[in-house]
Design a protein that fits this description.
The chain has about 300 residues and is an alpha/beta fold. Helix 3 links the parallel strand 4 and strand 5. Helix 4 packs across helix 5. It comes from Aphanothece cf. minutissima CCALA 015. This is Methyltransferase type 11.
Length: about 300
């Protein structure tokens, strides 16, 4: 299902194109303390910061000391490992490589590669130190799985992101903290993170499904589950109902810590082997090649 991109009208909702916008409050965002308008769309229930002109300032430091970064990536890697193993056991898992969008330091794809999965990472604002030399999409072929953890709230237009970055990928796993429908959190809600200025889009399930529809996706493809700390934090988009069932099962098992009992014998069973030494060899070969290309002093 493909739809033509419809640019929003000036002053229209960037999520649905509607014009029933209500100003919520004026706030100061980023270290530059730029004045911004927090607005709510009554048509689709999208809550957002309008006209984010401060993003260059917000991303001057791509990693600002996110205190949940390590724990979140460890949990995400466990969830994805179990989910993808279930897919392989059920013979509906992707044989193509995966790509983590907005990967930051690259911790998630590094953890997945360490356990045998062919994952890469992309990020327009970060050096991706942990995933070198596997930065960038994995070749020109099909990508079986894409992920985007703590990315959706950074995106000005979710329909454009889903259309352009996710597209027809058969499996998309992501995280963002979704509001209850109709809820407008108070000014002290921690997820706003106004002082950093990178969070600009705050979805409910309803607003996100509207974005999916505008991107040409069936809203029924969305599954939302609770994370280990926050409700409505982990999500999947998949046309195949088997993936949606597997995601619910994997989430329940990981949240109970049972993946630690299952993965050590399930991963070898489906043919997964660590990529630590092969990746080290590739990295050393690239460094050696780069050194050989340098002129002698």
């Amino acid at each position: 299902m493909v739809t033509a991109e419809i640019p929003p009208r000036p002053g229209a909702c960037p999520n649905c194109g509607g014009d029933r916008l209500t100003p919520v409050r004026r706030v100061r965002v980023s270290k530059a303390r730029v004045a911004a308008e927090l607005a709510h769309c009554s048509d689709c229930d999208f809550l957002f910061l309008a006209e984010p002109t401060w993003l260059d300032v917000a991303y001057e430091e791509s990693f600002y000391g996110d205190t949940g970064y390590v724990d979140r990536n460890l949990h995400a890697s466990r969830l994805l490992r179990l989910l993808l193993v279930i897919g392989r056991l059920g013979r509906f898992g992707p044989s193509e490589p995966g790509c983590d969008l907005g990967t930051g330091l690259g911790m998630l794809p590094r953890l997945l590669r360490d356990h045998g999965f062919d994952f890469h990472g992309t990020d327009a604002y970060a050096a991706m130190e942990l995933i070198r030399p596997f930065c960038g999409p994995p070749g020109d072929g099909a990508i079986g799985c894409k992920t985007a953890f703590e990315v959706i709230e950074h995106v000005p237009s979710t329909p454009d992101f889903l259309r352009d970055e996710v597209g027809a990928t058969p499996l998309f796993v992501f995280s963002t903290l979704m509001r209850r429908e109709g809820e407008i959190p108070g000014p002290d809600w921690w997820y706003y993170a106004f002082g950093n200025g990178q969070h600009i889009s705050f979805h409910s399930r309803r607003s996100f499904q509207v974005a999916m529809g505008r991107a040409g996706m069936d809203p029924a493809w969305l599954v939302c589950i609770d994370g280990p700390v926050h409700q409505r934090a982990l999500h999947l988009i998949a046309p195949d109902a088997r993936w949606r069932r597997a995601f619910r099962v994997a989430g329940a098992l990981v949240n109970r810590g049972l993946d630690g009992l299952l993965l050590p014998w399930l991963e070898p069973l489906v043919g997964l082997r660590t990529r630590i030494i092969p990746d080290h060899t590739i990295a050393m070969e690239r460094l050696r090649s780069a050194a050989e290309r340098q002129p002698c002093p």
